[in-house]
Known about the structure:
The chain has helices at residues 16-39, 51-67, 82-89, 91-98. The chain is an all-alpha fold. The protein has one domain.
Amino acid sequence: MNAGALDYLVKGKISPQMLERSMRYALKLGDTLEALRRLAPRDQLTGLLNRRMFDEILQEEIERSLRFDRPFSLILVDIDHFKNVNDTLGYLAGDAVLR
């Protein structure tokens, strides 16, 4: 288990029920990990890539620009006074504006 195994079965003591449980556990864990891999890089509200993914992609694009000796541009957009939307209209309205 310390080496990374998720489950173990004792040779000579394997029953159909134990094998089924172990396989069900492995399949469920695989599904859960796949869902996490899909959801982890995205913001829950907007579905956009999160800051960590932004940083990774930005670094890759900077390196590509240098490698091919091509110009690189980046545009950032900021919403001024967005706090006023939340304070005045509430968080649901703010979430709608962000979406």
